[in-house]
Amino acid sequence: MSEGLRVADVTFRYGAKTALEEVSFDIAPGRFAALLGPNGAGKSTLFGLLTRLFTTAEGRIEVAGHDIARAPRAALARMGVVFQSPTLDQDLTIRQNLGYFAALHGLSGAEARGRIDAALDRLAIAERAGERVRDLNGGHKRRTEIARALIHAPSVLLLDEATVGLDAASRQAITDHVHRLCAEDGLTVLWATHLTDEVRDSDRLVVLHRGRVLADGECGALRGDAPLKDYFLTATGAPA
Ligand SMILES: Nc1ncnc2c1ncn2[C@@H]1O[C@H](COP(=O)(O)OP(=O)(O)OP(=O)(O)O)[C@@H](O)[C@H]1O
């Protein structure tokens, strides 16, 4: 059973408006895949389907080998999600936020503490665990959300515009951390963004445009000699 993510022939409509049309891609276990698309491309709609906020009868989604329509609980249990809008409790500390999430997943005691400590280490925020979220900068808040998404040991991690609103240094630190999760822990990552500078040549790149997959391959091979920004602009006609 693959620990990766598979999207096959997925179509979704809002009434008469087709937001996704026969979208297919397959992310191998341990790969970092960037889902790049201009505003309105369909990224949020795809995230909604991957996380089962909505469903579609057209197409198939598999998370770590589990069909999300037939076995939603098994599929969602293998998935970690960082949504675009922050969802941490500002008045709790980092550790309390993670502890609450662990409890929601039925984890407690030494097991919960072990998972929390490992996630805090992974995101290099262990020394801040006792600080209230309200007092953290934007980068550390995002890292806390990523740490929280790892507590239940998912094999697939979805991040929807995870660096929105952050400065360049924080964006770099977060993309580095998430790449390490792939390389060192074998996590499969789908990283939705509209920022070309977050994508590396060795990353898998899926370009979504007007609800369709416009390009899919290794970023370096797709862009060739052109900067990714120019390739993306030419391919989509949209500014990156
Ligand atoms: N509730 C809705 N009803 C009708 N059309 C919608 C609805 N939500 C989104 N759409 C349309 O579906 C298409 C895809 O939207 P979606 O929000 O998934 O794109 P996106 O790539 O996430 O863009 P953004 O980065 O701006 O959120 C767009 O054309 C959008 O206008």
Would you write up a description of this structure?
The strands form 2 sheets. Strands 6-7-8-3-9-10 form a 6-stranded mixed beta sheet, sandwiched between helices. A 4-stranded antiparallel beta sheet has the order 2-1-4-5. It folds into 2 domains: 5-78 and 154-236, P-loop containing nucleotide triphosphate hydrolases (Rossmann fold), CATH 3.40.50.300; 93-147, no CATH class. Helices cover 35% and strands 25% of the residues. Strand 4 and strand 5 form a beta hairpin. The protein is globular. The mean pLDDT is 94. With 240 residues, the chain is of the alpha/beta class. The structure holds adenosine-5'-triphosphate (ATP). Adenosine-5'-triphosphate binds next to strand 2 and helix 1.
Summary tags:
single chain; 240 residues; alpha/beta; Rossmann fold; 6-stranded mixed sheet; 4-stranded antiparallel sheet; 25% strand; globular; binds adenosine-5'-triphosphate; ATP hydrolysis activity; ATP binding
CATH topology name of the largest domain, in short, is Rossmann fold
- In the CATH hierarchy, the architecture of the largest domain is 3-Layer(aba) Sandwich
Q: What structural class should be given to the helix and strand makeup?
A: alpha/beta
- The termini sit apart by 37 Å
Strand content: 25-35%
Radius of gyration: 18 Å
Low-confidence stretches: none
Bound chemical compounds: adenosine-5'-triphosphate
- Can you count the beta strands? 10
Q: What is the number of domains?
A: 2
Family: Belongs to the ABC transporter superfamily.
Protein name: ABC-2 type transport system ATP-binding protein
GO molecular function: ATP binding; ATP hydrolysis activity
Keywords: ATP-binding, Nodulation, Nucleotide-binding, Transport
